[in-house]
UniProtKB/TrEMBL annotation:
Keyword field contains Calcium: no
Species this protein is from: Hyaloscypha variabilis (strain UAMH 11265 / GT02V1 / F) (Meliniomyces variabilis)
Annotated PHP domain residues: 5-212
Keywords linked to the UniProt accession: Amino-acid biosynthesis, Histidine biosynthesis, Hydrolase
Gene Ontology CC: cytoplasm
Upper taxonomic lineage: Eukaryota, Fungi, Dikarya, Ascomycota, Pezizomycotina
EC number: 3.1.3.15
Catalytic activity: L-histidinol phosphate + H2O = L-histidinol + phosphate
Pathway: Amino-acid biosynthesis; L-histidine biosynthesis; L-histidine from 5-phospho-alpha-D-ribose 1-diphosphate: step 8/9
Top-rank taxon, per record: Eukaryota
GO biological process terms held by the UniProt record: L-histidine biosynthetic process
Name by which UniProt lists this protein: Histidinol-phosphatase
Length: 299
């Protein structure tokens, strides 16, 4: 059963992604996916948190509400063809975002959300090199210090929100000077990684194996091998995501991702079953044989 737990569309992330929500879904169906999660970026609460191409936070919340309406319509339209999970990708910029994410997640249409960190010291760390360097200077001037601050922010997010799915755990690698470095070689960073992994396992969270790192030029998906080995040794549960930003990315590098998982000795992945709009219910975890993902995915 091929699936993806993380996606975006140009319809609701304009300037960030391409294509309509339905076009992205149709591409997922054509690639043999049987479960697909809609997880547009959540609205932000301050103009200070806008990306360079954005002018105001004013349209973000209304756009999010329209996204949920459209996602629910598509879930009904494609029932029996593909299971659609409705969620959003969280933005942990500062602790005050915990209240906003909790509020957004209370909508009965929402099955889950992804707990992600894209900012350190209020600066986006995966947008471009200039902003990454700005965040690094605020952290003390080295990649190691910025990595430590990133994983501390992630630790705060995990403890505050207990997300069902944790997004691209080591995203901080992307624009660093040595993005393919083994994090285990950096003691202070590795200790924080292991600490965070223990929290995810204790919370029963799913850690996404995110293949978008490969299309962005990294040698391995998120998370890197040493992180995956450590997480799996703890009994952690991996899920699978393409983090698509339009139809061109749906299922991109899944063949490489599956081979990577096989090399890690992974036999089963995990996904969620939807709440079906039931108030106060909780999406349940379901195991999916990796062999089934490989067999059903249309390369």
């Amino acid at each position: 059963m091929a699936f993806s737990m993380h996606s975006h569309s140009g319809q609701f992330c304009p300037g960030h992604a391409k294509d309509s929500l339905e076009e992205v879904l149709q591409k997922a169906i054509s690639r043999g996916m049987e479960t697909f999660a809609f997880t547009e970026h959540m609205p932000r609460e301050s103009d200070d948190d806008l990306y360079p191409e954005e002018e105001s936070i004013a349209p973000l919340r209304p756009r999010h509400e329209l996204f949920l309406v459209e996602a629910a319509k598509l879930r009904e339209k494609y029932a029996g063809i593909i299971k659609i999970l409705i969620g959003f990708e969280g933005e942990w910029i500062r602790p005050s975002y915990a209240a906003l994410m909790t509020e957004l997640a209370s909508n009965p249409v929402v099955d889950f959300y992804i707990g992600s960190v894209h900012h350190v010291h209020g600066i986006p760390i995966d947008y471009d090199k200039a902003l990454y360097r700005k965040a690094r200077e605020l952290a003390g001037g080295s990649d190691e210090r910025l990595f430590e601050d990133y994983f501390d922010a992630q630790f705060e997010m995990l403890n505050a929100l207990k997300p069902r799915v944790v997004g691209h755990l080591d995203l901080i690698r992307l624009l660093s000077d040595n993005p393919n470095r083994n994090l285990k070689e950096v003691k202070g960073v590795w200790e924080k990684v292991v600490r965070n992994l223990k929290v995810i396992v204790a919370q029963g969270g799913l850690l996404e194996l995110n293949t978008s790192a490969l299309r962005k030029g990294l040698n391995e998906p998120y998370p890197t091998r040493s992180v995956c080995d450590e997480f799996l040794s703890m009994g952690g549960m991996l899920t699978l995501s393409d983090d698509s930003h339009g139809i061109a990315h749906v299922g991109t590098n899944y063949e490489k991702g599956i081979a990577y998982l096989e090399s890690l000795g992974v036999k089963d992945l995990y996904t969620l079953d939807g709440k079906d709009g039931k108030l106060n219910s909780k999406a349940s975890v379901r195991s999916v044989p990796l062999a089934s993902v490989k067999e059903t995915f249309n390369a």
